[in-house]
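Reading group handout, session on sequence-to-structure problems. Before we discuss, look at one worked example. The prompt was deliberately terse, the way you'd type it at a terminal:

> structure Synaptosomal-associated protein

The input record follows.
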Amino acid sequence: MDQINADMREAEKNLTGMEKCCGLCVLPCNKGASFKEDEGTWKGNDDGKVVNNQPQRVMDDRNGLGPQGGYIAKITNDAREGEMEENMGQVNTMIGNLRNMAIDMGSELENQNRQIDRINRKRYDQNIRVQ
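And the output record:
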């Protein structure tokens, strides 16, 4: 879009030069409406950084165990209860990872929506300029 904008500026400059009488003075009858573009649309550093790699899988231990006594109440203190406690800990870690991934995806979607809005503003400006 930025290259199209630069090409359109150059084409408008050349057309203005062609409208001059013998290349010297502007004819009043050929005076057309000039396009006023919004410079805020074309500023350069709003797109953010290019992503070169994707986030890696992270085992998140900051969620830790649930309550102080664990996830289940120990009744018989056998191996099955220990295994259930371990499984619940793993489920808690996985749910925490899913939560963190959802938060990261939400922030990435917000960034991409801002970029899409900026591209749409550029497209709108170009459509007006071409008409």
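Points for discussion. First: Residues 79-130 form the longest helix (52 residues). Second: Residues 1-130 form one domain.
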